[in-house]
Amino acid sequence: MKIYKQNEIDELAEILKKDGAISVPTDTVYGVCARMNSIKAKANLAKIKNRPSTKLFSIMCSDEEQIKSIAIVDEIAEKIIHNFMPGPITLILKKRPEVPEYVNNGEATIAVRMATSKALEELIRKTGSPVFMSSANKSGEPPCTNLDEIAKVCPILDGMMEGNVSFGRASTIVDCTSDEIKILREGPISLEEIMEKIN
After folding, report:
1. How far apart are CA 123 and CA 41, in angstroms?
2. Of the candidates 32, 70, 115, 145, which lies 20 to 30 Å from 127 by C-alpha distance?
3. How many C-beta atoms surround the C-beta of residue 132 within 10 A?
4. pLDDT tens digit string along 94-145?
């Protein structure tokens, strides 16, 4: 499996445009991604991870504008985005009605992250679509910690972007769909930190 340098974004974007799936370093753990605007790309990613089709993928966007193109961002969500993104945080937001049903199995909500490095931001821009993002592993198993492990566990990936991850644990998941902010998964950012910025 070919390992691409972080400056070989054009080649990696071409793989994604052709519905392929690649592994990328994020700030939290190594991820695997495929473009959001293709049902075939989503199916490929699910197959690589051996993931049940009922389990949803989070979506990584290049910037706030792209988040707003797929999700409804209210005042509180906007404060969280401005204070913590890009960073180790995933927001559950209400989905925009124009987002195709297959993206999140017709659910009313969508999980979004913002690109956590310049390389990822550029990759998403050049792909021309947000990407489905999930940790690099087989569904239900611990995330891989290096490229050799990823190649072993996900042998049918179409390529890997080299690079390091910093936190080594998954992002904080914050539900912003009701009046009360809820943490669905503890991660590097705490509820206290979030409430402090919101208030």
Report:
1. 16
2. 145
3. 25
4. 999 999 999 999 999 999 999 999 999 999 999 999 999 999 999 999 989 9
Instruction: Tell me which residue of 144, 106, 115, 132 sits closest to 20, measured CA to CA.
Output: 132
Local structure of 31: helix, strand or coil: strand
Element (H, E) at 3: strand 3-4
From first CA to last CA, the distance across the chain in angstroms is: 48
Other CB atoms within 10 A of residue 83 CB: 15
Angstrom distance (rounded) from CA 13 to CA 35: 9
Could you write out the DSSP letters of every residue in 64-120?
HHHHHHHEE--HHHHHHHHHH-SSSEEEEEEEPTTS-GGGTTT-SEEEEEE--SHHH
Dihedral sign for Cα atoms in the order 182, 188, 192, 198: negative
- Contact assessment for residue 35 and residue 16, using Cβ atoms and an 8 Å cutoff: yes
